[in-house]
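Go through this chain.

——
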Amino acid sequence: MTVTELSPTPAYKVTGPRVLRAEWAKFWSLRSSWITLAVAVVLLIALGAIASATYSPDVATQGGPPGPGSGDQDAVSLALLGVTFASLAVGVLGVLLSAGEYTTGMIRSTLTAVPRRLPVLWSKAAVIGAVALVLTTLGALAAFQLGTLGLHGEKIALSLGDAGVLRSLAGAGLYLALVAVAGVALGVLLRSSAGAIAVLVGVLLILPGLASLLPDSLYDNINPYFPSNAGSAVYALHQSSGALSPGAGLSVFAGWVALTLAGAAWRLLKSDA
């Protein structure tokens, strides 16, 4: 009787770069990634370009309805009018990237391949954060450049070389990248696409409005620290009265995202998939 020697099975270690590469491939294999990213960039560019093209200083002086041309506006605020809508798109994409695996049951295969678990969360956040940062920053630049055509000859027109313009456009991309990471964290924390999207929309859009029901003294103190208000301070060209500075706004909003990520990491470690 002869003994057949089996060739040794190559050992593959689960390393951070390999988990990151797997999440990168998984991200681009999903049709929802392409569609949602395209929607975010189109909203960002189109709304900014339309707001700039339809700007009329007469509307503001006549006390017209809210919208482009009313209130204290500048070329950057018009170009970034679509940030709120783009934030919903990238936030929903983050939720789908993480909670979607719980819906389909794919998370069990993912955690079997990566038993230490936390590298999965960090890799998902890194992938969508980097992609959203690059694409939305380019989208903000495109919206501003298109907006300069519509604002040609207007008093509020600015160029990329003016003070604070590039910082604001880069801040918009950074804010949207952090919203996408928050979406990933909410998806892992709640493990429900519908629930995580509802919380995301509530925090970004509804919470500041509800807080206006609070007493004025309390509202004035806490209003700048709501996630969406702190985030909007990151890309504002001029610091408005009662708002945080760009640096403070970034610190506060990043703190909210880090807190959500910490909650997601805790549940990922403590709960079965």
In short: The chain has twelve helices and no strands.
